[in-house]
Write a structure and sequence with these properties.
This protein is mainly beta. It has a single domain, classed as Jelly Rolls. Helices cover 6% and strands 37% of the residues. The chain is globular and about 55 Å long. Bound molecules: 2-acetamido-2-deoxy-beta-D-glucopyranose (NAG) (4 copies). One 2-acetamido-2-deoxy-beta-D-glucopyranose (NAG) is lined by residues 84, 278. The site of one 2-acetamido-2-deoxy-beta-D-glucopyranose has 7 residues, from loops. Residues 1-18 form the signal peptide.
């Protein structure tokens, strides 16, 4: 089911919203050295060889976060960048030469997995806002995965995606909706898409029912209130229970294009093979938090 912008769904059953499970809105007191030490709401280990603050910067009072929550909190815009050195090497494992990535992973009391077990039960709502970094543009010939919940099998409960989806063989031709922000479900079906217009915040919330396995997407721009842009959609391929729980990432994760000179058996291994131009690129984030939804 594909639903385009500004489709207002009458949510007949009003869901009462309760407590905040996790708040990733970066306070003005947080510093880049906190980022380097993974102190605060984010685990910052998924990145290239430099310090976390080489890739992720906090913009202080110089930059305006989404106006949606400015009456509630004073937060800093978070700037995520990738460079050609943004090759993540998972502990003792093969470098991810196919990707360029900088990820922020939600954590509580210094633990991402403990937080997942707390916030990924019942019904919970994941909030995030993104804005283009016009000085460090993305390359829309590539696929980018920019917000997702990743269980240990590497799938995504849902994801926010940009660009031209990875395909083998690759083409440098842009997908018609390459410059659209796309919310996809666990099976990568498109639930909602909207143009990634410049110079404004794009606000999202995705409500996840962890037991009934459904998703509902909410969206707005700037300071406008979030509205439901899909109905409650089934997400049946996601797993129930702890196998379905995973880390909540805000990421600049750039997939490669296929390099036809590499062995055919490796060409679909996007984490380790393929073409990257090595460009420096960026995105802005704010308004990240997770709420419990009482039903
Ligand atoms: C963090 O610690 C507090 C106090 O012990 C506890 O209530 C909370 O559930 C913990 N959160 C996580 C994510 O472990
Ligand atoms: C974007 O990626 C394509 C595919 O690799 C490449 O041909 C093109 O030169 C890149 N553009 C920039 C500006 O790096
Ligand atoms: C979950 O599904 C059950 C059975 O279909 C239904 O009664 C219940 O209302 C659903 N819960 C939510 C939150 O939609
Ligand atoms: C990017 O890094 C890769 C891997 O280290 C290297 O092979 C490649 O030459 C670099 N590209 C540029 C443009 O620096």
């Amino acid at each position: 089911m594909v639903l385009f912008t500004a489709l207002l769904i009458n949510t007949a059953i009003a869901l009462a919203t309760a407590s905040l499970y996790w708040d990733g809105r970066v306070p003005q007191t947080m510093t880049e050295s906190d980022l380097d030490s993974s102190i605060g709401p984010y685990l910052t280990v998924v990145k290239g060889s430099e310090d976390a603050s080489h890739y992720t910067t906090l913009l202080g009072t110089d930059s305006t976060p989404t106006p949606l929550w400015s009456s509630v909190v004073s937060e800093q815009v978070v700037s995520l960048t990738i460079t050609n050195s943004s090759i993540f090497v998972p502990g003792g494992s093969t470098p991810q030469n196919g990707f360029r990535r900088t990820d922020l992973i939600a954590q509580g009391n210094g633990s991402n997995s403990a937080l997942d077990a707390i916030m990924e039960v019942g019904v919970s709502k994941f909030y995030f806002s993104v804005q283009e970094n016009e000085h460090l543009p993305l390359n829309y010939s590539h696929e980018y995965q920019i917000v997702f919940i990743e269980p240990s099998d590497g799938t995504h409960v849902f994801e926010l995606q940009l660009g031209t989806p990875f395909s083998n063989p690759s083409t440098t031709e842009l997908a018609a909706d390459a410059r659209f922000l796309k919310v996809r479900d666990h099976a990568l079906n498109l639930l909602f898409e909207t143009p990634f217009t410049a110079g404004q915040w794009h606000n999202f919330a995705v409500q996840v029912d962890w037991k009934n396995l459904t998703l509902q997407v909410f969206y707005s721009t700037g300071g406008a209130e979030l509205v439901a842009v899909t109905s409650v959609a089934p997400n049946p391929t996601a797993a129930i229970g702890s196998a379905g729980q995973g880390d909540f990432h805000a990421a600049l994760l750039k997939l490669p294009l296929v390099d036809p000179s590499e062995p055919a058996t490796e060409q679909n291994d996007v984490a380790h093979y393929g073409i990257q131009e090595g460009t420096t690129e960026g995105l802005f984030y704010s308004g990240l938090f997770v709420e419990q939804v009482l039903v």
